[in-house]
Amino acid sequence: MMGLHPTDVKENFKEELNIVGQYLKKEKFCAIGETGMDLYWDRTFIEEQKNSLRAHINLAKKHNLPIVIHSRSSFDEIFEIIDDTIDDGLSGVFHCFGGTVQQAQKIISWGFKLGIGGVLTFKNSGLDKVIENISLNHIVLETDSPFLAPKPFRGKRNESAHLVYIAEKLAEIKNISIGEVSEITTQNAIELFKFKN
Ligand SMILES: [Zn+2]
Known about the structure:
The protein is α/β, with parallel strands linked by helices. It has helices at 13-26, 46-63, 75-85, 101-109, 127-131, 163-174, 178-192; strands spanning 32-38, 67-72, 92-94, 113-116, 139-141. The chain has two domains: 1-83, no CATH class; 91-197, Metal-dependent hydrolases (TIM Barrel). The radius of gyration is 17 Å and the shape is globular. Zinc ion binds at residues 34, 70, 95-96.
């Protein structure tokens, strides 16, 4: 992916975005991101973060690539911007989704996917109850490595191979085989990142 992460958006974000734009011209990428907003630690650059997200959406449309959204304590702000910019050409994923059923449905209504990672395996995360209500057709698996390692590696360094623990948990929640989870979520990823083309 190519993008300017929301926690790195500062006064100079326009300069940084120029560099993002240059890379997009000279190399091949499968997505724009991570973009989005993160107001959990710091709200200082909230307006810059909003402008940066809008700029990433424009880049996604221009390059016909999906956007990967990082959202922390900022669902409402992000939703407003996507509602304002959504069109048939824009697709994407809310990575490490950890919201409510209502928020999930809003994301799905744009044709976006939900990225589900290790948090699903955490005791008392509540994410399992949300995912029970969401069709697998809208879900892609992810690790966010080296962060958010699933059970039984919680707190340790995460790696891509741990994806299987997330798939296992999803199979348990949906009461289907891990093979079915694998097939559907792989298809979703192929569709999301336009790998067929
Ligand atoms: Zn992120």
